Amino acid sequence: MGKIFVDACFKKETPYTPVWMMRQAGRYLPEYMEVRKKAGSFLNLCHNPELAAEVTLQPVDIVGVDAAILFSDILVVPNEMGMRLDFVKGEGPVFENPVRSKEELDKLLCGSDAADKLTYVYDTIKIIKERLSEDKALIGFCGAPWTVATYMIEGQGSKTYAISKKMMYQNPELLHDILKKVKEVTKLYLENQIKSGVDVVQIFDSWASAIEPDKYDEFSWQYMVEIAEYLKEKYPHIAVILFPKGVAGFLDKVYGNFDVFGVDWSTPIELAKEKLGDRYVLQGNMEPTRLYSKEATTEAVEKIQSIMQGKNHIFNLGHGILPDVPVDNAKHFINECKRVSKK
Ligand code: 1CP
Question: Which of 73, 180, 224, 338 is least buried, going by the fewest C-beta atoms within 10 A?
Answer without folding.
Answer: 180
